[in-house]
Design a protein that fits this description.
CATH class: Mainly Beta
Largest sheet: 7 strands, mixed
Shape: elongated
Order of helices and strands: EEEEEEEEEEHEHEEEEEEEHEHEE
CATH architecture: Beta Barrel
Strand order of the largest sheet: 6-11-3-4-5-2-21
Oligomer: single chain
CATH superfamily: L,D-transpeptidase catalytic domain-like
Number of strands: 21
Radius of gyration: 20 Å
Helix content: under 10%
Structural class: mainly beta
CATH topology: L,D-transpeptidase catalytic domain-like
Low-confidence stretches: 1-32, 325-331, 336-346
């Protein structure tokens, strides 16, 4: 199988005229496993996928809620679900009603700010107190600031999947960067081997495009309107380490040079930002990254054809999928960035 250099899509294609990294790109950024979040804390990075369908996955075992937009994780939060005898039901739900000033008609007119109803018999998402364990009457309590942010991006009919280990597959109980379900609540990914090349544009003919390049998985995943339309193995030079996550956003501008994804076409111009990273990790020079990756040539041409302004590429050393907590005992889904205004706590 032929292979092609990937600097066009990743970083080297930015070349000398590319927009610089954000000013805080090399600031100290402590790493934090999402399991270490304290009650009331959350992470929020909406710029990773600015458009696309929203899906929420609630893991009752982890007491965490994962927010996906266009098939990519943009946030994760601590929660408090139903206590013993008032268990939060599992399953696939849709948002039936929204009211930012709702009060309970069952429990003493208790405030339920930024309420998003999942069932007509009282189960909902809403802001509330998080003691660090299941304590609600069945609802999913969220930190109030997180509840407000989530309220602002969801729509009626959006899917919410509530999972536990007794009733759900591991991909739902322990989610990762790639959404385990589609906007319709169905399994998101075909069963592919690590070396298999997959391309099916018909699975989602239109919509915003987001791309995950996972160095951990050595895999490229292409999502359109929240649906996987392509995946391919990623080859890397030995001992390459990114030490974090870089976000690329495609602009409307073109470079007057051939694209290395498709030499018959011109190169797109991208803007790059470091989103996540480890404390003290230096940012590799842009051009040095270009020689570090390869993908199959035919896949590269198909990939070029679906790119459009606003396409985002998340280049990360995090996994796209966590099969079970034992398989990946210490790998975070997102990492905290105290230098970023999008990281919120309590």
């Amino acid at each position: 199988m032929k292979r092609t250099l990937l600097p066009t899509l990743l970083l080297a294609s930015l070349l000398a005229g590319a927009a610089p990294f954000a000013a805080h790109a090399q600031s100290a950024v402590p790493q934090a496993d999402v399991r270490a979040l304290q009650p009331g804390e959350f992470l929020w990075y909406p710029q990773i996928a600015p458009e696309g369908p929203v899906v929420l996955v609630v893991s009752l075992d982890e007491q965490r809620a994962y927010v996906y937009r266009n098939g990519i994780a943009i946030g994760v939060s601590t929660i408090s679900s139903g206590k013993a005898g008032k268990d939060t039901p599992t399953g696939v739900f849709t948002i039936l009603q929204k009211n930012k000033d709702h009060r309970s008609n069952l429990y003493n007119n208790a405030p339920m700010p930024y309420m998003q109803r999942l069932t007509w018999d009282g189960i909902a998402l809403h802001g509330g107190h998080l003691p660090g364990y299941p304590a609600s009457h069945g609802c999913v309590r969220l930190p109030q600031a997180f509840a407000e942010k989530l309220f602002g991006i969801t729509r009626f009919g959006d899917s919410v999947v509530v999972a536990n280990a007794k009733a759900s597959p591991a991909s739902l109980v322990h989610p990762a960067v790639l959404a385990p379900v589609t906007a319709g609540g169905q399994a998101a990914h075909p069963d592919l081997s690590a070396y298999e090349v997959y391309w099916n544009e018909a699975a989602s003919p239109d919509g915003p495009v987001s791309i995950l390049v996972s160095l951990y998985d050595q895999r490229v995943s292409v999502l359109r309107n929240g649906v996987l339309i392509g995946a391919a193995p990623l080859q890397m030079v030995r001992d390459f380490a990114l030490n974090g996550t870089v976000l690329l956003v495609m602009t409307t501008e073109m470079e007057d040079i051939p694209s290395l994804l498709d030499p018959q076409q011109k190169e797109h111009r991208w803007v790059a930002h470091r989103v996540l990273g480890e404390e003290g990790a230096p940012m590799p020079p842009l051009r040095s990254l270009g020689d570090a990756f390869w993908i199959p040539q035919d896949f590269a041409r198909r990939l070029y054809a679906v790119l459009k302004p606003g396409t985002t590429v998340l280049l990360s050393d995090l996994p796209g999928v966590r099969a079970t907590p034992d398989d990946q005992p210490s790998v975070p889904v997102l990492e905290s960035d105290e230098a970023s205004p999008t990281t919120a706590v309590r």
